[in-house]
Amino acid sequence: MEFVWVLDPLDGTKNFSYEIPFFCTTICLLKNKEPVVAVIYEPITDNLFYATKGGGAFKNDEPIHVSGQSEISQSMLL
Question: Is the C-alpha dihedral spanning 77, 58, 34, 7 positive or negative?
Fold first, then answer.
């Protein structure tokens, strides 16, 4: 069994360098190359997103869910 931490201390480096307030810190734990825990922190908004494999996803301790939209033409990708 192999565990690996993946860390991007400044995800959105270009935005940060141009003072565009869309950047975050990202941390993920992989087990045998599969993500089991992920955390994203946005310092500008003070939002904390996290998820665990089989345990759901959360924003500031509130559950979040994927959209039920199945048509790409009716979707917005960010």
Answer: positive
